[in-house]
Amino acid sequence: xxxxxxxxxxxxxxxxxxxxxxSSIIGWIRKNLFASAKDSVLSIVALLALVYFLPxxxxxxxxxxxxxxxxxxxxLTVDQGGQLPAGWNGACWAYVGDRFVQFMFGSYxxxxxxxxLLVVAMFVGLLIPFLMPKMPRKGLNALLLLIxxxxxxxxxxxxxxxxxxxxETSLWGGLMVTLIISFVGIAISLPAGILLAxxxxxxxPILKTVCVAFIELIRGVxxxxxxxxASVLLPLFLEPGNNIDKFLxxxxxxxxxxxxxxxxxxxxxxxxxxxxxxxAADALGLNYFHKMTFVVLPQAIKLVIPGIVNxxxxxxxxxxxxxxxxxxxxxxIVKASFGDSAWIxxxxxxxxxxxxxxxxxxxCFGMSRYSAFVERRLDxxxxx
Length: 384
Fold this sequence. Notes:
mainly alpha; MetI-like fold; two-stranded antiparallel ribbon; two-stranded parallel ribbon; 16 helices; 64% helix; globular
């Protein structure tokens, strides 16, 4: 007699909907804001602080702010009769609008602004496909972005060739200087940091000693000291008339400083790789170069992406220290504009600093979000 198999299911059950408490807005609030008594107290305090401060902040920044005007009088309020000044309005965005070009490019000649704008267009055009994982020809894109573009930008911005008008680096300033220094620092510090980290872990005593001495020496002094030495002390060791451009000194100083910190970040990733990975690469007959390039470094860099991006963000913000050598980045040129008699008001400094701070935040937040995206994409761990 054949055995009955009627108890065997011949199709899968449809997936049930998640509990309402997890999928609804109320469930998300309960889980993330009021999961415990401490979370509830902190959430309520934060909410009350927002209710108390946010309306006044929005009013000062946007509602009562002045958006147009040609001088400081635009930011004045008047009494009911419209005659006498009665005080000051909110944020004076008219001042930011009037000085916007200066904040972006410093004292770069206004009739030559097409040159930095062209560099920005080329940078954005190469950076966007470089950051998109599925775009083809990554090698060519990286070559154009990291090698060709800096050379082209150097001659285009500095001039003196191909009929371009020479523009001294002392006229450069604003966000342009911030981006140039940070981009060059990033492009140099990452490969230099990798080489220093590998040298520090080398079995060759001389190479290891040199790398350790370099890293510890640079990490033992603040960036402002490195910039001061590059600006003041370096010319003393050069022959008269053989001076290095001040902006180039800043680029070298920032790149050297960031390389030392990057080396320690990469070294942490190398130490986190299990010894079995090294032994497996040796068992396959790979030489040192292939072992590091194809087995060890990809895993190490993936582990320390947060540390790498944190170093990049810190370096981006530290570009403000170039004011020590009379180079004015975004923050430096905003602070220098406070002395303009046409815009001296009680609200001008705060407005300028908010603008500079928000600009820095946009770039830092963008790097942070892209870092999180890369981490998620490279996460190959098996999730439960």
